[in-house]
Design brief:
Blueprint: E1 10-13, E2 24-31, H1 34-43, E3 53-59, E4 78-84, H2 95-113, E5 117-120, E6 124-127, E7 130-142, E8 145-155, H3 171-175, H4 181-198, H5 204-213, E9 221-226, E10 229-238, E11 244-248, E12 251-255, E13 261-263
Parallel strand pairs: 2-3
Antiparallel strand pairs: 1-2, 3-4, 4-8, 5-6, 6-7, 7-8, 9-10, 9-13, 10-11, 11-12
Helix pairs in contact: 2-4, 2-5
The protein binds biotin.
Residues 33-35, 59, 62-65, 68, 70, 79-81, 123-124, 134-136, 152-154 line the site of biotin.
Amino acid sequence: MVFIYHLMEHLQSNTFSSFFNGQKLISLKRVSSTNDYLKQELSKSAPFPEGTVIMAEEQHMGRGQVGNRWEGEPGKNLTFSLLLRPDFLPAHDQFKLNIAISTAIHRVLSSFLGEAVKLKWPNDILVADCKLGGILIENSVQGTNIRESVIGIGINVNQTDFEFAPRACSIKQLLHREYILTDLLYELCSSIEQSYRQLKTPRFLAEKEYYITHLYGLGENKVFRQQNSERIGKIEGVDSQGRLIIRFENGSESFAFKEIEMLY
Ligand code: BTN
């Protein structure tokens, strides 16, 4: 049971004094999933302010997209969930949140890993062809708008053995040095806060351009699996609903998440 681990919880306040993201940081030794923990606490009316961060040294049931597991060696990687309340955002625009989070993470990681960092639609962070991180955003909706958003982020940082996830890689493998997890958390929260603020302004259009520019496979011939057939096409961008636009021989088509998979 997740709540057993409350005993190991230690609360630090005002950790990131000038940013609302991360001002309330709950650091857990072991939890099922930081997303699940945050959602459970919210369902019990925990008075968490926007910007609350739950991080865990170890998740024993970490979740990825489409029911995948998210696994890693305890204490070596960054696994955290951030609470946002983008109640200004219509639910049909929820992909904008994905863009804001992805570009924020990309800015931080590319500042020390360079332009090889790519965003694989819709939620992966790759370097070359290996997976450095992933994003799992879970929204609750009230009326037409988003009420709360749990932003789960996993970044492989200091782990070097990926026997059970051969496509994964870490910052340490790329830079040959350790990265302090809380430093990276601080940088990510600051960057997310900046792009989140932009989400409310017309300047956000530039974020979408940034997102598209850094998409993995943009403009390259790639193989896509659609149901049981494989097709070759080139990614052109994403539309206003976050659907992936792919140009095939006979014209462009757009796809929602799970309707198409890029093979790489
Ligand atoms: C993916 O690549 O499919 C998304 C991975 C998201 C993993 C993070 S780790 C912190 C948070 N808690 C979870 O259970 N999942 C997300």
